[in-house]
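User: New here, please read:
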Amino acid sequence: MSKDKDRQRMAELREQLQYHNYRYHALDDPEISDQEFDQMMRELSDLEEQYPQWITADSPTQRVGYAPVAGFDSVAHTVPLLSLSNVFSEEELRAFCQRVERLAETDVRYFAELKIDGLAVSLTYEDGVLTQGATRGDGAEGEDITQNLRTVRSIPLRLQQPVNINVRGEVFMGRDAFVRLNQDRETAGEALFANPRNAAAGSLRQLDPKVTAQRNLDMFCYSIGYCDNDSLNTQSQSLAYLTELGFKVNPNAQPCADADELLDFIEHWAQHRQELAYDIDGIVVKVDSLQLQEALGFTAKSPRWATAYKFPAEQVVTKVLDIAVQVGRTGALTPLAHLEPVTVAGSTVSRATLHNEDIIREKDIRIGDTVILQKAGDVIPEIVASRAELRTGEEEEFTMPEHCPACGGDAVRLEGEAVRRCVNSACPAQLLERLIHFSSRGAMDIDGLGPAIMEQLVKAGLVETPADLYRLEKDQLETLDRMASKSADNLLRAIAVSKDQPLARLIFGLGIRLVGEEAARDLAAHVGSLRGLATAEPEQLMLVKSVGPKIAASVRQFFAEEANQRLLDDLVDLGIDPRAGGQAETADTDLVLDGLTFVVTGKLEGWSRSDVEQLLRGAGANITSSVSRNTDYLVAGEKAGSKLDKAQSLGVTVLDQTQFRDFLNERGVSVD
C-alpha cells in the first residue's frame, strides 16, 4: 500500500471510529460490536506507529497519549460557569416559580433535568475539534484539565459538524465503576473513595492522564455556553442539537408547564433514582426559553432562570459499639466500626469502614459515640459525623496501634501515605489474606477453598505460599474439620483445575500491590508469560495502557524480593505457567457465543456480575453496559430496573437466571 493510500486509510479510520463512538456513547445505539471497534482501533494505532507525523490531536488513539503534567494552568471562562441556587421543599420550588413569573411578566414554561452528582466541566471546540476542557473553579476561572478530559470516551474529540461551540456538562462515575474502583483500591491497600462524586473529582485532577483513563468516567452535557448556531430557541432544542453534534445527553428530561408538573417529575425520580446506574442528588429546573433566560440574567452567584431541587440524603442514627483493626494482605491496617445494626437505603448495616486514622481524628469518632450513618453513593456505609452533644463521658478515644494486632510487628505510616502498614512480611494475617485473595473468584477461582478452610490450612502449617496449595495431598486435607473423603477429592480436583486459569488471573492472584484486574489483563497481554512479567523493566511495563510509574515500580519491587522469586520458580515447576492468548485463555469453552452481544443487570443469586461477564467473554461474547437495538440478550437478575424496561421496549431477548443457565448449558458452556 502506498503512503498516500495509508494516509487516506488513516483518515477513513478516524472518521469511522468517531462515528461509532458517537453511536455508542451519545445515541446508546451501536452499529458494530466491541470486537470490530477494537480491530479498527488497532489498525489505526499500527498505521500511526508507522507514520507518527500524521497523528492528529482528535485521533481516537490519543485519548491516553499524553505525559503527566506538573500542575494545572488556570482557564478564564468566556461565559461564566456559575453554580445553581438550591431549593429543598415544595414551598421553596413554588416560590422560585412565582419569582420567575413575576420577573418575566409573561407565561413561563420550564424544563426539568436530572441533577447528576459529579463535577461540572466546560468544553471548547474550534471548527468541531476539542481544544480545551476546564473545571468550574470559582465560575470565572477553572483549571485546564484538557488532557484528562480527552480520556473520557463519551466526550467527542471531533464533532459531527465543524462548529465553534462551548459546552457545559457533568463528569461522573457510575455506581458499578465506583464499586470496582474501591475493590481494586482495597486490594492494593489504598484508601477508599467515600462516594462516586469524590472518585470522579479525584480522577479528573490526576496529574497523569493514564490514571484518569483507568477510572471509567462518563459525562452528560446539559447546556451551551456559546455557539455559532443562532436558531436555537429553547433548552429542549439545545439538548437535541448537542446530541446531533455527537454529545451524550441524559434522556431523562422533559418540558413542564408549571410547578405542579415539575413536582410530579421530582416525585417520580425521588422514588426511582435507585434504578439509575449513576447517582443523582436532585432535579435541575430551568426556564425553557433561551430568550427569557437571557432576559432574566444572573445574580452574582447563580442564574435567576434556574435552580436545583436537592433530594435529602437518607441518614440514620446508630451507635459505635467498638472499633476494630483489620490487617489486609498488603499489611494495611484499616479501622472498622462495629455498629448497632440499623437499616439504611434498604439494607441492614452493622459495620462501616473508617478508612484511616486521619478520618477518625477529623470526624472525632469515639467508641460509644452516637453517629450519623448514610450509604455513600447508596452503596458503601459511611459515618458522616458523631453527635458530640449526646456524649455521656464514658466514650473512649481511639488510637491506631503502633504494632500489628495480628503479629505484633511494627506498624509504620510512611510519609505521604494515609495508611499505617505492618512491615512484617511473615505476618500471619497478611499470609492468610494473600492466600484467600489468590484462590478468590477474580483470581484463580478455586471452588470450595473459602476463608474458613484456608485459615485451617495456615494454622496447621500445611500452606505458607500459593505454591503449597498445589502440593496438598488427600490425607492432609482429611485432617481438617468437616473435610470428609469426598470433600477432599473435590477440593483437590478444583485446585488442579485452577492450573489452567489464564495468565491475567494468575497475575491478579499474586496480589502485587496496585495491580487490579484491569491492569492484570493488560499486563498479561503485553508480557505474555509470568517470567516475562518478572523480568520486564519499568520502561517496558509503562507501555501498557493502564500502567503508570507507580504500578510499574510495584511490579519490579514484587519480583525483586527473593521470596517472590522462589514462588515464581515453584509455580512454574508445578506446571502453573500460562501464556497469554494460549489454551488457558479459552480452556473452558469454544467461542460458541462469538458475535453475540450481552448486557448483564440486576442481582443474580450466587453470581457476581463480573463472574457472569467473564464467563460470557470466555465464550466469545461481547459485553456492553447499555441496552440498544444491537443487544442480543439481556441477562436480568432481581431489581433489573430501567435496562429491563428498555430491553422489552426494543424487543431484546431477556433471560432470567434459570433461563440463562439453560441457555449456557444448551451451548456447552460450563456454569459450575
